[in-house]
Amino acid sequence: MKKKKVTYFDYNLLVVLIFMVCFGLVLLYSASAYEAQVDWEGDSMHFFKRQALISAGSFFLMYWITKIDYHWYAKFAEKFYWVSIAVMALVLTPLGVEVNGAKRWLPLVGSLTFQPSEIAKIAVILFIPLVICRLGKDAPKPAGMIRIFGWGLAVAGAVFFFTDNLSTAIIVAGITFILFFVVHPKTKGFVIFGSLSAVAAGVAVIVMSRMIDTSGNFRIRRILVWLHPESNAADGGYQVMQGLYAIGSGGFFGKGLGNSTQKLGVIPEIQNDMILSVICEELGVFGAIVILILFGILIYRLMFIARNAPDLYGSLIATGIMAHIALQVILNIAVVTNLIPTTGVTLPFISYGGTSVVFLMAEMGIALGISKKIRISDD
Question: What HEC string does 166-230 produce?
């Protein structure tokens, strides 16, 4: 009997995504209620309402994107790549908006702003797979490697130069590296490169630790704060130490949802990059494990889509989305636990940030759209 081919849709990814967004909104309200009440005239739900509204709208955006055949992106991927660079360049014009000393935003409507560097992530996720597909068997060769990394590092450099956002530049470069790693048949070169990079980073840290920062370079200060947070409390170490205190005081099961003390004006902007520290204080290590399991399931479903996509382009797009989520989660956790110097990396779907939610949901829509093209046998 001939097997019938039926269309697949990854409802598992959709369910975990809905649960994560809803869970994230609860955690966001718990973390931000006090600061919102103080800063926004008694409106404790200010951050929650804005995030909930944007999240709801993003679900409709995701639903619309799932209906687009992902092959359509190949027609515009290169144009979108150049548009992303042009939009980021606008940050250097009078249109650029400065927030907390960093000029990385562009205005939308009223007080709403967005980070154009988020566009660069999707641009790389859609365009680098196209470059690899065009190269075909030449992709793993030196000439192919130069082209792939040339395109990827060019937009990463644009992110750094135009928006001065090192963390996003690292993520963009990391996505490019992972996509090249996936299509390369050998791993020896990557092991050597990783080892040399680790040694170089170690040497750089040793050199930095012996420096006295007289240049005013904030990145050198961040490294010094990372190495000696107690001695540099006035230069940023205070936030790091208070975050670690919050994590340590939560124990395994935490103090209970809503019972954090570090969120009461102790850690500034707690609803952004440092929200994981409040989660650990209120829900303990157990809560952090639940968060990691949810991200693990999300990444596993993206991996499943990548492995079963009908062609290389779809597989690499799903891989790029998976790499983005994984890199951002790893970097955020590393920052909160002081494993690496402080960078502005949010925790996907949980930290406050409308631009991040919109583009993350767009990526999920693309991944779900790819899953619709998967064919399975109906016995």
Answer: HHHHHHHHHHHHHHHHHHCCCCHHHHHHHHHHHHHHHHHHHHHHCCCCCCCCHHHHHHHHHHCCC
Main-chain dihedrals φ then ψ at residue 150, nearest 5 degrees:
-60, -50
Beta bridge partners of 99: 102
| pTM for the predicted model, two decimal places | 0.91
> Which residue reads 């092959």 in tokens?
71
Rounded to an integer, what distance in angstroms lies between the CA atom of residue 364 and that of residue 322? 10
For residue 347, count CB atoms less than 10 angstroms from its CB and return exposed for 0-12, middle for 13-18, buried for 19 or more: buried
The Cα–Cα gap between 147 and 12 comes to: 36
Is residue 274 a contact partner of residue 267, using CB atoms and an 8 Å limit?
yes
Residue 102 DSSP SS3: strand
Tell how strand 102-107 and strand 375-378 pair up. Answer: unpaired
Per-residue pLDDT at 353 exceeds 90: no
Distance in angstroms (rounded) separating the CA atoms of residues 34 and 40: 10
- Work out the number of other CB atoms within 10 angstroms of the CB of residue 38: 12
Burial profile 185-215: b = 16 or more Cβ within 10 angstroms, e = fewer: eeeeeeeeeeeeeeeeeeeeeeebeeeebee
Distance (Å, rounded) from C-alpha 355 to C-alpha 346?
11
Report the alpha-carbon distance of residue 66 to residue 64 in Å, rounded: 6
∠ CA 235-239-243 to the nearest 5 degrees? 155
Kindly report, residue by residue over 101-121, the tens digit of the pLDDT: 678 888 877 677 888 888 999
State whether residue 65 is helix, strand or coil. Answer: helix
Q: Which of 244, 286, 251 is nearest to 266 (CA)?
A: 244
